[in-house]
Design a protein that fits this description.
Number of helices: 5
Order of helices and strands: HHHHH
Strand content: under 5%
Number of strands: 0
Helix content: over 70%
């Protein structure tokens, strides 16, 4: 017969609490920033996509003079639009701000797709400034297409670069938008209130 006393039962411990969530006031801007990033990126992707599937194929069916005149007017209108300029630049700013906030909150699962989204859209900005805007400027420098010299060669060079590069911009915007949607879903799961089963 053993002389050792029977083991005492383990002390009672309270059930584990769900992880604490940040106070609403401290995290209030993250959600709206993400939503604004998604909306702005979606607008830019839609703009480039519309050029891919309707504007540029439609212009390609016109003669060179009409093509040049129409593209000159499109570029003049969009370059003079404050709303376009705001969305075009704010898209990157909103995405970067969202990524910084996610890193500060140590939400890496949210921050990483935001970094991908920002890099993709930054590539769109670089391509636009380095390729599309100079081509638009060359087209504007022709002046009146009815009296421009070497118009067929200029238009052919314009089409051969501008059109495929715009497809690249569309793809990059779509990749950025997909990454942003992933970040938004992860943010929603990370901040959802705990509901006991």
């Amino acid at each position: 017969m053993s002389h050792y006393p029977p083991p005492s039962p383990a002390p009672w411990a309270p059930p584990a609490r769900p992880p604490a969530f940040p106070p609403p006031g401290r995290d209030r801007a993250a959600g709206p920033l993400l939503v604004a990033s998604v909306l702005c990126t979606g607008l830019m992707a839609g703009l480039f996509f519309a050029y891919d599937i309707s504007v540029m194929p439609g212009l390609a069916e016109l003669d060179d003079r009409t093509y040049a005149a129409a593209m000159q007017r499109f570029n003049a209108v969009i370059d003079g639009s404050p709303l376009f300029g705001l969305v075009f630049l704010a898209t990157l700013g909103l995405t970067v701000a969202s990524a910084i906030m996610a890193f500060r909150k140590k939400r890496l699962a949210v921050a990483m797709p935001l970094v991908v989204a920002a890099v993709c859209y930054l590539a769109v900005l670089v391509i636009t400034v380095a390729v599309n805007l100079p081509l638009n400027a060359e087209l504007a420098a022709l002046g009146n297409p009815a009296t421009a010299k070497d118009l067929p060669a200029v238009i052919e060079d314009f089409k051969s670069v501008w059109v495929p590069v715009n497809v690249v911009r569309t793809v990059l915007c779509m990749l950025s938008l997909g990454a942003l949607c992933s970040a938004l879903l992860r943010y929603g799961r990370a901040t959802a209130p705990f509901r006991p089963v």
